[in-house]
Amino acid sequence: MKIKSIVAGLGLCFICHSSFATTVGFAQVGSESGWRTSFSESVKAEAKKRGIELKFSDAQQKQENQIKAVRSFIAQGVDAIIIAPVVETGWTPVLKEAKRARIPVVIVDRNVQVQDESLFVTRIASDFVEEGRKAATWLMSQPQAQQQCNIIELQGTVGATAAIDRAKGFNEVLAKHPQAKIVRSQTAEFTRAKGKEVMESLLKAEQGGKSICALWAHNDEMALGAIQAIKEAGLKPGKDMLVVSVDAVPDYFKAMADGEANATVELNPHLGGPAFDVIEAYLQGKKDIEKLIRTTGDLFLQDTAAAEYEKRRLN
Ligand code: AHR
């Protein structure tokens, strides 16, 4: 209920916890990947656990749908809004509308480019540049990458922070290894179907892919689609062509355990808890909240893949 944040803003938050139910709108990107589905489930489960009424919107990877959803949350007078933005730009007008309605906004995962940082409370996110660096550092440590190493890159959604920053981090490391270069790079929009389709056409353009040393995919989902394409081209993914990616979803652990993928950098999908912690603190009057709350993730390889798959597949 909107009144709760106003009361909290006036410093009268002794009534905040018990007297009103909190309503939060969540403008999610879509359901393009296993990682995204786990993230949505985390927010839904955490809302339920805390007795928060959640209004969930799936934008099907379209920013215009997200903007419509945010406007509808504002019209309904929610207490707070979570946005997981599809792309970085184009957010200022709707964020200003939320601010005018005194509704706090928390950005989760990808970033927004705005001049006025007071338009959102905080951003909870991983360091995508570092993820790209970790992936490339692992790849450059492999024996196959010591000679000439031609790489195919499957990029995420154009304009999305996860695509922009992962490419940046990866290329930063690659610049120190002149024997390695990205010979083909194309977006596959973070989906498995596109990952397969785009990889098929890139392998054709590369005469079947025999001269390709590695696939670098901006997420596991695209890598899983591409693995299928590599197999259909008569090559062994994970052996003839190294496969490195980001997310650490169960299906990718299975592919690593089967020897068809080599490495992944974990992206934590359990973002519901931290997002609601910030919202509850803000609604209770806490205003000195850091502008960026970082999540971290490790690099996983084939040696632990089977055990990780067992641990994660039912979660
Ligand atoms: O923004 C994070 C990325 O979005 C994840 O790596 C990917 O799986 C999702 O679609």
TrEMBL record:
Keyword Signal: yes
Listed CDD domains: PBP1_galactofuranose_YtfQ-like
SUPFAM superfamilies linked to this entry: Periplasmic binding protein-like I
One function term, GO molecular function aspect: carbohydrate binding
Gene Ontology cellular-component annotations: cell envelope
Matching InterPro entries: Peripla_BP_I, SBP_2_dom
Signal sequence residues: 1-21
Location of this chain's protein in the cell: Cell envelope
GO biological process: one example: transmembrane transport
Keywords tagged on the record: Signal
Periplasmic binding protein domain sequence ranges: 25-287
Similarity remark: Belongs to the bacterial solute-binding protein 2 family.
Stated name of the protein: ABC transporter substrate-binding protein
The organism of origin for this protein: Rheinheimera mesophila
